[in-house]
Amino acid sequence: MRYYCAVKMPDRPRPVLAAGSSNRALRDFETINRDDMKRALLLVIFGVLAFSMHAQSILRGKVTDDKGNPLEFANVTYEKDGVISGTNTDLDGNYSVQVDPGSYTVTFSYTGYQARKFTDVIVKAGGVTKLDAVLTEGVVVATVEVIGERYKAPLIEKDGKDGQT
Predict the structure, then answer these.
(1) What are the backbone dihedrals phi and psi of residue 48, each rounded to the nearest 5 degrees, phi first?
(2) How far apart are CA 75 and CA 112, in angstroms?
(3) Distance of CA 94 to CAs 14, 59, 134, 139, Å?
(4) Is the CB of residue 138 less than 8 Å from the CB of residue 74?
(5) What is the CA radius of gyration of the chain?
(6) Against a cut of 0.70, is the pTM above it?
(7) Could you list the pLDDT tens digit for every one of the 165 residues in the chain?
């Protein structure tokens, strides 16, 4: 008996190829044995393990106001080695980002609220780091006064030409 892809195949006559061609490729293809399949499987397993060892980590949490209400679409920025990236919270105030392991500076901001900054947030390899933030209402922006004056010349001159040049 010969084995092919872990399925027992009965011995059968080989097909006849055209005159002058070699049966070597067909013979090599058909004679995959159990040891070859074990080696291939081990290679695949070690490849997957090697790839997963450099797995990214997850930084997640929730952004709320001082009353416990979630802040939807709040800005979450994170910085590592001078590279700044960011995301927004969802409708429930939650955020989740995949990041490389390391130390981050994370800033939370929302319009009308004071920004909150966390430094030296350690994200470990292959793990989930939870970081929640509570933002307090910020200082009210001072009143802005807009001063305008009436124009002296008309914006469109009427010359009687009806748009002709």
Answers:
(1) -65, -40
(2) 12
(3) 63, 11, 12, 25
(4) no
(5) 34
(6) no
(7) 554 455 555 565 555 555 555 555 555 555 566 777 788 787 877 776 666 555 679 999 999 999 999 999 999 999 999 999 999 999 999 999 999 999 999 999 999 999 999 999 999 988 899 999 999 997 656 677 877 777 666 666 666 665 555
